Amino acid sequence: MSERIAAKMLANSNSPRQHANRAHFLALRAQIRSALDDGWSMLAIYKTLHSDGAVQFSYQAFRRYVKELAREESVEVNADVSPRSPKDLSQRMR
Predict the structure, then answer these.
(1) 8 lies in some domain
(2) Helical (H) or strand (E) element with 84
(3) Cα gap 45→65, rounded to integer Å
(4) How many domains does the chain have?
(5) Residue 65 included in any domain
(6) Using 50, 70 and 90 to split pLDDT, how confident is the model at 36?
(7) What is the span of the domain harbouring residue 64?
(8) InterPro entries this protein is in (predicted)?
(9) DSSP string, 20-64
(10) pLDDT (tens digit per residue) in 42-89
(11) How far is C-alpha 84 from the chain's CA centre?
(12) In Å, how far are 19, 25, 40, 44, 87 from 8, measured between CA atoms?
């Protein structure tokens, strides 16, 4: 769904700039995630994408999108962890 929305925002020249910027980021997020996983800094990734013309927005906006991506991935990981019941916790305290 997210990819379809991003494609529509990129195709629609009347969409607000922030939507188009987010769409550009989402289109590149797999590459960005891979570069981050390889140890590259956000600044190095941004400078490369910006000099290539892949992103036209500010570094501050790029950082915000990366932080949102990290937060979303954190929520996905935490959702996979089953919560402990009060009974489990009381047994651990003994």
Answers:
(1) no
(2) none
(3) 13
(4) 1
(5) yes
(6) very high
(7) 22-73
(8) DUF5338
(9) HHHHHHHHHHHHHHHHHHTT--HHHHHHHHHHHTS--S-HHHHHH
(10) 999 999 999 999 999 999 999 999 999 888 877 665 555 555 555 555
(11) 29
(12) 10, 14, 30, 29, 49
CA–CA distances in Å: residue 11 to residues 26, 28, 31, 87 = 14, 16, 21, 54
Residue whose structure tokens are 């489990």: 88
Type of residue at 36 = L
Q: Comparing C-alpha atoms, which of 47, 51, 54, 50 is closest to residue 26?
A: 54
- Residue 8 DSSP class: H
Q: Which residue has the tokens 């188009």?
A: 20
d(CA 42, CA 62): 8
Please report, as a single letter, which amino acid is at residue 6: A
Which two three-digit tokens encode residue 49?
A: 């994408």
Cα–Cα dist 53/19, whole Å: 17
Domain assignment present for 54:
yes
